[in-house]
Amino acid sequence: MITAALLALAAAPLLAQDIRTDVDPAAALKGLRGPAALSQHNEAPTMTQLEDGAERRVRNYPEQPPTIPHDIDGYQVDLNANKCLSCHARTRTGESGAPMVSVTHFMDRDGQFLAAVSPRRYFCTQCHVPQHRVAEEVGNSFVDIDSLIAPRADRQ
């Protein structure tokens, strides 16, 4: 049912009111560098503030990796050490209060459970990222799957 709803949405034609004609193309392409030419050197933008909170963000689709709700600057995550596991390892969550690493991180590629975090799931920032408080550079009209199928479920 979900697949059919997504296919119908993807196949829907682009409506005339969805096309923006009020945007100056040059302004739309300025990006993070601002209006400066590529040959000019700009000052780097100021660093933005991290979203630093204990609440968990809502996930928009199944299997979406959760975001990191705290600063991780200076965390060592390499072949020698993984700072994330000092709080999120199964044996450390009682004292740290942090959520445990998902059980999926203990599975190898054949679906067999391991005693420790799988090497393919060891580098946390491949999937998990901290969030910064920033203004959107580009508008976002993302609609999560639950919102898409909710009206259809009510009709059935």
UniProtKB/TrEMBL annotation:
Binds 2 heme C groups per subunit. Its main location: periplasm. Heme c 2 binds at H105, C124, C127, H128. Keywords: Electron transport, Heme, Iron, Metal-binding, Periplasm, Signal, Transport. GO terms for molecular function: metal ion binding. GO terms for cellular component: periplasmic space. GO terms for biological process: anaerobic respiration. Coiled coil: none annotated. Heme c 1 binds at H70, C84, C87, H88. It comes from the Bacteria. Transmembrane segments: none annotated. Pfam families: NapB. It is found in: Periplasm. Residues 1-16 form the signal peptide. Component of the periplasmic nitrate reductase NapAB complex composed of NapA and NapB. Electron transfer subunit of the periplasmic nitrate reductase complex NapAB. Receives electrons from the membrane-anchored tetraheme c-type NapC protein and transfers these to NapA subunit, thus allowing electron flow between membrane and periplasm. Essential for periplasmic nitrate reduction with nitrate as the terminal electron acceptor. Belongs to the NapB family. This is Periplasmic nitrate reductase, electron transfer subunit. It comes from Minwuia thermotolerans. The lineage of its organism: Bacteria, Pseudomonadati, Pseudomonadota, Alphaproteobacteria, Minwuiales.
